[in-house]
């Protein structure tokens, strides 16, 4: 119901713009509405401007003026659901495989291929989703991808029983998942002002980490169960269907990105969305939103008329490969795969590592062995041939999932700390320092001689690597203008998922060859990423300068309302309620 109210607010504002505004877009700006209910609010607000209307305001400044309030909290919840869905879809197989390997008779190499299949799907459509969303908007491609993932995850959980069928389902889910990974960050970034954007991304990562801990907790509770009607690991995978469906439905309650609307020539609707956000955040009517006109850079105005979205894909790619986008794009597409090669590979293999260590202890050994002594038992022959005979007696110790839950809670702690410190430290320092520290944890990993030491190292690695990735995504969003942002993020995600795919295939091969080399290869890649991050490029565009006019108008409006409410006992003034 609340979503319906907000949508109607946008429609009313857009209709008023049509009726009352000066017609059309003039010199790249949209002349806005005038609501007479707001005339009496600030007595000193009715200033005479040159040309008879307030000066135009850039999109970033207009978005900042919407503030932080009820809508922002709802958007954080939506971002959390998006990131949680990505986590559930990406890691449900990692938790399920230790228990499902007997039913499915997966070899170590088949596990690697199934883990990698998701990233093959992501790579196949990475650039398509970005270019498409730049032309048709962010919201509905997101909703479509969540609906498709819900259907596919249901089929995967209930009916798939062979490695090849798993591969097909995981590839399709990856093709949809990349849309959510690409568009959710872009979508949220275009609905939050720059004042809150960096911290909100970190908070979103913190909430995702808590949900990841909950996901591991659910695995600890569900997978060890002995059910007569369905394998417990299949019940666990059905959770992915549920979270995808819930997220898609929730996104229907949110508006389209105002930046995307403005770039596509729908400026009246863009102001309507901004006014609706302002109203929800401040408690004031949408008519009191102080922005009276928007201005767009010429490059964004031109991008609204580029034609068919699929025909635009090639032009977008060519544009990104030329100055001034070339250097920022190279930075994004090189650093992201270096991080994800390590983070996603280790994350997918951690449950298996703990399961192997628990089986090693259960075999009757009196002394713990180092990680690599255990993993090197997976010889090349064992990597290709695996046979289980009694699946009814086959089970995974619940401590495997308890350890995963602890790792995710540690990740949440790192994200929470980063959320409060990133503004002070700066994103560049945050990225370089976390990558450097994560490198040291991978160097130490092969020497861990007990599950408790492995758990501690895994907590530090996952927390540091995740903060580094979240920071990199935050940086990437700000490196490109709205007209090519989704396409650039899609290319970066394409390269990142390529790194994840290579990592999940290479890791079991390196384990069979030399365990220490498997971890130290990742350490070398993270060290190189830290080195490149020292030379982080500047944004590829010049934002419209903040005129301060919108903030001045809003401050005058609030000051006048405050002074008027001291004279009268009324809580509203011509429909504009003073913010509490």
Automatic annotation (TrEMBL):
The lineage of its organism: Eukaryota, Metazoa, Ecdysozoa, Arthropoda, Hexapoda. It is found in: Membrane. Keywords: Membrane, Transmembrane, Transmembrane helix, Transport. GO terms for cellular component: membrane. It comes from Frankliniella occidentalis. It is a multi-pass membrane protein. The chain crosses the membrane at residues 113-132, 144-165, 171-188, 200-223, 235-254, 400-422, 517-535. This is Synaptic vesicle glycoprotein 2C-like isoform X1. The gene is LOC113210639. InterPro entries: MFS, MFS_dom, MFS_trans_sf. Residues 62-541 form the Major facilitator superfamily (MFS) profile domain. One of its GO terms (molecular function) is transmembrane transporter activity.
């Amino acid at each position: 119901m609340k979503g319906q109210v907000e949508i109607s607010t946008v429609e009313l504002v857009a209709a008023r713009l049509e009726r009352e505004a000066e017609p059309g877009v003039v010199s790249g700006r949209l002349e806005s509405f005038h609501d007479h209910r707001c005339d009496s609010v600030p007595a000193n607000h009715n200033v005479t401007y040159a040309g008879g209307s307030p000066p135009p305001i850039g999109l970033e400044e207009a978005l900042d003026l919407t503030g932080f309030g009820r809508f922002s909290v709802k958007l954080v919840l939506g971002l959390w659901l998006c990131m949680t869905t990505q986590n559930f879809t990406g890691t449900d197989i990692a938790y399920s495989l230790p228990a499902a390997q007997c039913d499915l008779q997966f070899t170590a190499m088949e596990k690697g291929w199934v883990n990698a299949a998701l990233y093959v799907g992501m790579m196949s459509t990475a650039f398509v989703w970005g270019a498409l969303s730049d032309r048709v908007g962010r919201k509905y491609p997101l909703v479509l991808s969540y609906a498709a993932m819900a259907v596919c995850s249901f089929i995967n959980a209930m009916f798939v029983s062979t490695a090849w069928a798993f591969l097909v389902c995981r590839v399709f889910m990856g093709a949809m998942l990349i849309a959510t990974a690409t568009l959710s960050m872009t979508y949220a970034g275009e609905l939050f002002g720059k004042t809150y954007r960096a911290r909100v991304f970190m908070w979103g990562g913190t909430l995702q980490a808590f949900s990841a801990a909950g996901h591991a907790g659910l695995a600890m509770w569900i997978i060890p169960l002995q059910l007569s009607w369905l394998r417990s690991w299949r019940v666990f995978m059905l959770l992915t269907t549920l979270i995808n469906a819930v997220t898609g439905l929730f996104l229907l309650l949110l508006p389209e990105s105002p930046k995307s609307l403005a770039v596509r020539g729908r400026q009246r609707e863009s102001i309507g969305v901004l006014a609706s956000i302002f109203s929800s955040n401040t408690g004031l009517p949408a008519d009191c939103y102080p922005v009276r006109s928007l201005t767009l850079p010429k490059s964004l105005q031109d991008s609204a008329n580029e034609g068919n979205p699929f025909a635009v894909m090639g032009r977008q790619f060519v544009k990104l490969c030329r100055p001034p986008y070339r250097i920022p794009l190279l930075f994004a597409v090189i650093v992201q795969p270096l991080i994800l090669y390590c983070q996603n590979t280790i994350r997918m293999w951690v449950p298996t590592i703990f399961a192997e260590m628990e089986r090693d202890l259960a075999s009757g050994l009196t002394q713990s062995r180092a990680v690599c002594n255990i993993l090197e038992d997976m010889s090349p022959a064992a990597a290709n041939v695996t046979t289980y005979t009694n699946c009814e007696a086959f089970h995974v110790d619940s401590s495997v999932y308890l350890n995963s839950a602890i790792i995710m809670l540690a990740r949440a702690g790192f994200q929470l700390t980063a959320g409060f410190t990133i503004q002070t430290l700066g994103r560049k320092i945050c990225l370089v320092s976390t990558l450097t520290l994560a490198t040291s944890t991978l160097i130490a990993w092969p020497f861990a001689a007990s599950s408790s030491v492995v758990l501690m190292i895994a907590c530090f690695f996952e927390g540091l690597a995740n903060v580094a990735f979240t920071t990199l995504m935050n940086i990437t969003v700000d490196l490109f203008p709205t007209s090519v942002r989704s396409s650039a993020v899609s290319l970066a995600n394409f390269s990142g998922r390529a790194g994840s795919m290579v990592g999940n295939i290479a890791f079991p091969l390196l384990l069979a060859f030399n365990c220490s080399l498997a971890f130290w290869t990742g350490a070398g890649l993270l060290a190189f990423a830290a080195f490149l991050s020292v030379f982080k490029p500047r944004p590829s565009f010049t934002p419209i300068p903040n005129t301060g006019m919108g903030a001045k108008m809003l401050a005058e409006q609030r000051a006048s309302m405050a002074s008027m409410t001291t004279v009268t006992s009324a809580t509203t003034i011509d429909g504009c309620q003073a913010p509490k």
